[in-house]
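Why should sequence recovery work at all? Because a backbone constrains its sequence more than one might expect. Tight turns favour small or flexible residues, buried strands favour hydrophobic ones, and helices have their own preferences. The token representation captures these environments compactly. In the example below, the structure is given first.
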């Protein structure tokens, strides 16, 4: 059975003969036409994928029982003057089949079957549905992470302030330390959600993938058990990629851990780095891919493998085959990082034969520079404010704004507050301001970071943009020379350090 571009409403009336039909079918590369008589016996089989041996056989003689069982009712309906259409699966291929009466004047003398191979179309439809589902879940996950980051900023910030006031050996201090630890774990979870939803902050630089793998191998060896052999294979002359090095390391760790868990007894994990060029044919078959030279990072294991149903869901967040032992975020995070960075990831797996993940990353032009965005989210020494320094805090989230004000005032800054960009602009028109700490997304604006005018003295204050929606921050206006970016949730020390650097620029 093979392809044909067909009209399911078509009926054929003589005197169009078999020779004409055969000529039509053979000149349509993807077409196949079958003609059958009143005994359900084929009198013609022409077109791509058909064989002459079908001619002279009945439908039950020509096809296996399952296909014949589905075709026979449609054939009999055609002999009764009815048209029908059905979908059949033959081997690994899907077909759209139409069956219509074949008439000699008003008399039905047989039937015409046309078949169209829709395998590629169904695969594209499936990928589109998967992409739409992942996109919808990603938006939901990103939104939750954004709101949760605001809460974590407040919880973590006030916990840090309270820790400084509590004696080290006091029970309250130990309670606060536990809260701080839980906040850090929650922060890691929100970052995973942002990675999946492609809304995390990336700091790309020119990276030699093979070098990263080689340097990480000792750590990866400690992550797996002695029953599993870890091997690597690095091609020579592989170009660099523009990628966030820490995120590449996270991808490797996640894939190796996933491979380890898929091997129940002894086995092996192989990490390979190579290069390839993706042509138009490959890109047509893989819509997420891009043309040109790519670096290929491959992680293969000899584990249990996956069936089709599992393989179709592995990049969904919170989907896991590990029961209570897994969160279902590892592969979702890998998928998000790769896609956000302009790459693609494909998985090949068979039950009992293992799994291979292939990540295609566009090769970088060596002349490409690295991102210069400054992200300050680590602890640092406390910075005291220079005398008479004024900072404007702009955030529609009252608790976050109050925390920032408390931290800055505690360090000696004079702080002004605004709940919107418009309110901030009104303050700037009448006030002298040395720095602005502003949320990226504010009421009444767009997803782009707000642009602030000069203050009352005619100077442009340095801006610190803060957000849990880090994707919104990675825009040209945020990457301006006088701007910084602070990822939520941030520590009080990070806010003070960032503010001090903006003012000193």
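From this structural description, the recovered sequence reads:
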């Amino acid at each position: 059975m093979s392809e044909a571009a067909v009209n399911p409403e078509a009926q054929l009336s003589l005197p169009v003969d078999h020779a004409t039909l055969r000529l039509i079918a053979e000149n349509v590369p993807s077409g196949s036409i079958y003609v059958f008589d009143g005994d359900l016996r084929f009198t013609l089989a022409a077109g791509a994928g058909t064989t002459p041996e079908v001619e002279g056989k009945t439908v039950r003689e020509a096809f296996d029982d399952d296909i014949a069982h589905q075709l026979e009712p449609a054939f009999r309906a055609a002999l009764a003057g009815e048209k029908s259409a059905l979908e059949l699966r033959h081997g690994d291929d899907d077909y759209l089949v139409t069956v219509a009466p074949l008439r000699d004047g008003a008399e039905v003398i047989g039937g015409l079957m046309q078949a169209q191979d829709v395998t590629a179309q169904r695969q594209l439809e499936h990928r589109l549905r998967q992409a739409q589902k992942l996109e919808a879940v990603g938006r939901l996950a990103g939104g939750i992470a954004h709101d949760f980051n605001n809460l974590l900023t407040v919880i973590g910030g006030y916990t840090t302030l309270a820790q400084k006031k509590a004696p080290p050996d006091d029970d309250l201090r130990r309670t606060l330390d536990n809260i701080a630890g839980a906040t850090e774990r929650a922060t890691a979870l929100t970052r995973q959600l942002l990675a999946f939803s492609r809304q995390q902050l990336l700091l790309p630089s020119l990276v030699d993938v093979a070098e990263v793998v080689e340097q990480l191998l000792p750590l990866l060896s400690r992550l797996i058990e002695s029953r599993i052999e870890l091997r690597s294979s690095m091609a020579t002359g592989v170009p660099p990629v523009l990628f966030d090095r820490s995120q590449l390391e996270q991808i490797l760790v996640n894939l190796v851990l996933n491979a380890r868990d898929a091997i129940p007894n002894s086995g092996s994990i192989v990490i390979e780095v190579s290069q390839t060029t993706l042509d138009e044919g490959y890109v047509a078959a893989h819509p997420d891919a891009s043309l040109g030279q790519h670096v290929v990072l491959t992680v293969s294991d000899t584990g249990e493998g996956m069936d089709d149903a599992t393989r179709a869901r592995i990049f969904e967040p919170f989907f896991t085959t590990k029961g209570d032992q897994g969160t279902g975020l590892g592969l979702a995070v890998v998928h998000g990082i790769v896609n956000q960075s302009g790459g693609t990831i494909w998985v090949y797996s068979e039950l009992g034969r293992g799994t291979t993940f292939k990540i295609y990353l566009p090769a970088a032009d060596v002349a490409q520079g690295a991102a210069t965005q400054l992200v300050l989210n680590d602890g640092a020494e406390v910075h005291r404010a220079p005398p008479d320094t004024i900072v404007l805090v702009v955030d529609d989230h009252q608790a976050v704004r109050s925390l920032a004000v408390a931290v800055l005032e505690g360090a000696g800054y004079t702080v002004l507050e605004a709940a919107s960009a418009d309110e901030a602009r009104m303050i700037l028109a009448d006030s002298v301001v040395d720095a602005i700490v502003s949320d990226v997304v504010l009421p009444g604006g767009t997803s782009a970071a707000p642009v602030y005018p000069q203050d009352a003295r005619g100077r442009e204050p340095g801006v610190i943009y803060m957000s849990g929606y880090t994707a919104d921050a990675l825009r040209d206006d945020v990457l301006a020379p006088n701007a910084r970016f602070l990822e939520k949730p941030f520590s009080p020390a990070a806010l003070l350090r960032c503010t001090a650097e903006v003012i000193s620029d």
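A few observations help interpret the result. The CA atoms of residues 343 and 361 lie 5 Å apart.
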